[in-house]
Fold this protein.
Amino acid sequence: MRKMITLFFTVVLLISLAASASATEQELPVTLKAPQNVSVNWMGGNDSPTSMSFSFSMDNQMTQALAAIDQARDAGILETMLAKYGVTDVYVNIQIDWALDDVNDPVSGWHYNKYWDDPTGNGFGRDEDYGYRYSEWDVVDWGLNSLDTVQNYWIMRGVPDDDRWNGNPETKAPGVKDQLKPDQYEYYDDDVHIDFTKHTAYFRVRYALVAINDTEEGRTTYHKFSDWSETVGYGKDAVAYTPIKTGDIAAPEITDLHMTDKEFNDNPIVAFTLTVPDALAKMAVDAAAHGGGIVIETEARVKGDTEWVGMGNTDWEIKTGEMECALITLISENHPKIAKDTPIELRCRYRCDQPELDDVFSEYSKVLTFETSEIGNDPQPTPTAVPVVDEKEDDKKDEKDDKCPICHFCPQPLGLCIFIWLLIIIVIVVIVIVVIKVTKKKDDKKKE
């Protein structure tokens, strides 16, 4: 029953999210807003000499809509949900564009071209002959990492001295070298090197939505693109990153603590709703791009206890929406079993880690209280004592059990006396003979 209710509210959520969109967006179930809070950082030569860590955040409404679609897909009702839009499936990819020093330069400026929009229907970035019209550093068809608020990718990674660097004139596929000026790089040790104290790399990102409609006549595909994000850069002319410090992160906003119908190791799971404000999303994006991150930590306790317990097996990546928390961690020497309807308290805080810096913590959220189902590890049943049997008596018993109770000597094939099997065979033979004779008499009468 609870699962049906969950599916019902999933449908309602998706409809409400679509209804809140502008008139031009109502033909699809996801409203595309440009990616937010973009951030980038050079990885210091790790992975490759040019690798960058690039992050951005997704709009809360978008994450909820995509979560609703995923839930419907898992429940097998996606096509029913999307029928009003005239499609059978929807997913969202990303495209990341880049430039070096001057975004308007014809060589090293933005590299977006018409083929990124898939005008041929052959796939993002492909021409009429299915040729690739983008380089190794052009991101034209990458999927979302997850439905979490913060998305992080490694981009601008090293390229060996093959078509990925030199391009392919026959297929018209550009190489990374074709998108750089000779004075912007050096190439040695089978990799490209750029001095970011003298040059600046710029990036922007957008969403590419793919809507599919499968019918008996075939498949049709429709694309829709968000606006480009703000431009972010790293290098000589980019703004330096300021690490997050104590006091910067506000306490988590949590509401609607409730029991779910799920269990972990036969113990209940609760859920609460987390709201991720834009200020927190921006800090999380910056931390992720610079090799750190912000996670949410959940603590709980039996009401009346003084000590809080850090909860394991709990959602920790930040996202707007439902977060789940398994309660089995509350089991301890003081609480080997927690009775049903025992009041439980729960609170959360954010933790930010940054390379070579101490962790930064937010204040705790408000404390939420609820009454739980029973929690505890059921004791293992005591095994029944095995009676000691005299070996000789046991052998005699086996011998006795092996004897046929009817003839007292046959091996009882398939559990029956051999004489019963013979009787069954005789009966079958008789029936077959009778059937043959009756059939023959009928045939003779027909001939007469």
